[in-house]
Inverse folding.
């Protein structure tokens, strides 16, 4: 199967100044104990929290540079942490990392171990989710201590380093600066920054009288089972859409199902979907039988704009409403950011995200300038402090 991969990369912008949690060592990870979260505990006589000590969830590291996925599992890294009430280790508490439902139980010394997938760009929360069986210093937990422990959390990030190569006055733009930067990956890694991933098939399904058909599903596939695609059920207007990977000069089976009824093209007829473009296919179902007449006006196909892009992007954490532009990076991750010098002097951090978006109004390529607002930071996007050259 031929997969179209037009590699693009993009470094973009979004809102709200924010900082990473903890400092990093030369190896891209934080110093031991760097990720620490605390929650206060009020006194409660006869229990482990009678001293009023704080609940402390600490991780061995708070950041890791991203490593490409490997068959040998070398992208996985073990990490430890501890949970305490003041100086007392908390045993028997249950901890979750991110969206994982795997229970991680703290040991007698308050320690726990988790595994970090360094191939996934993320900022991951580590939280206490249950203390029913927990105790500290050999004593049961009071209600207030239990409540405080359930509020304790820490974070670790997996990210690509960002390097600033130079920052100059923007030509012809008073008070603005051009920042030349690069997303840095490990030598030999193949990084998908931003690329065309799929194209859209959309259109309408109507009955023989021209009325829209609701809850119909459009299917595409080939005889060998490759190129399979299934649309969303049609809405009240008969509209549907699906996304697909184009194939090279191969006919595709096209069918429509409504409940248990399946409508198909005439026997031995296939539909040829053009490459490197989205397509609109409007289908009119027959008044009798289940064979779709494969010519206009019952089957009408035209190309349409847009493509689905996916990949790693980076943006700048700046105050809401800040306007600036950024170019789409090249294959080496190099890009140019243009913004007010006063904003850049605030030393904002970058964020990184794995974005999938259908772009209809333009075709994206290296060096194109994108406006602010194209990308917004989402929960789970890691923050990155850029290194390298300063403004002259």
């Amino acid at each position: 199967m031929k997969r179209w991969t037009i590699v693009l990369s993009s470094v973009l912008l979004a809102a709200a100044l924010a900082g990473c949690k903890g400092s990093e060592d030369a190896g891209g990870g934080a110093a031991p104990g760097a990720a620490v979260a605390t929650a206060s505990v009020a006194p409660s006589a006869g229990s482990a929290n009678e001293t009023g000590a704080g609940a402390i969830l600490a991780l061995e590291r708070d950041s890791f540079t991203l490593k490409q996925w490997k068959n040998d599992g070398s992208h996985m890294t073990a990490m430890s942490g501890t949970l305490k009430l003041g100086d007392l280790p908390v045993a028997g508490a249950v901890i979750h990392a991110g969206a994982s439902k795997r229970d991680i139980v703290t040991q007698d010394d308050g320690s726990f171990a988790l595994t970090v997938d360094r191939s996934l760009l993320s900022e991951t929360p580590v939280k206490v989710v249950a203390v029913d069986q927990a105790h500290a210093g050999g004593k049961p937990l009071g209600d207030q201590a239990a409540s405080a422990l359930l509020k304790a959390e820490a974070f670790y990030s997996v990210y690509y380093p960002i390097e600033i190569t130079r920052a100059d006055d923007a030509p012809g733009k008073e008070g603005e600066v051009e920042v030349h930067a690069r997303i840095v990956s490990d030598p030999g890694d193949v990084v998908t920054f931003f690329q065309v991933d799929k194209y859209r098939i959309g259109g309408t399904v109507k009955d023989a009288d021209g009325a829209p058909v609701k809850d119909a599903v459009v299917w595409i596939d080939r005889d060998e089972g490759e190129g399979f695609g299934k649309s969303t059920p049609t809405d009240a207007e008969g509209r549907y859409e699906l996304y697909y990977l184009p194939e090279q000069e191969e006919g595709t089976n096209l069918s429509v199902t409504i409940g248990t009824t399946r409508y198909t093209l005439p026997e031995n007829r296939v539909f040829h979907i053009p490459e490197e473009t989205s397509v609109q296919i409007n289908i009119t179902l027959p008044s009798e039988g289940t064979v779709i007449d494969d010519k206009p006006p019952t089957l009408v196909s035209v190309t349409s704009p847009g493509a689905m892009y996916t990949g790693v992007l980076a943006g700048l954490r700046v105050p809401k409403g800040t306007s600036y532009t950024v170019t789409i990076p090249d294959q080496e991750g190099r890009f140019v950011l243009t913004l007010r010098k006063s904003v850049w002097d605030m030393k904002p951090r970058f964020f990184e995200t794995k974005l999938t978006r259908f772009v209809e109004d333009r075709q994206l390529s290296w060096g194109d300038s994108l406006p602010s607002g194209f990308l917004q930071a989402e929960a789970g996007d890691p923050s990155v402090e850029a290194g390298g050259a300063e403004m002259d």
Remarks:
- The domain at 200-305 is CATH 2.60.40 (Immunoglobulin-like).
- The first helix runs from residue 143 to 151.
- The radius of gyration is 27 Å.
- The chain has three domains: 7-13+161-194+308-388, 29-159, 200-305.
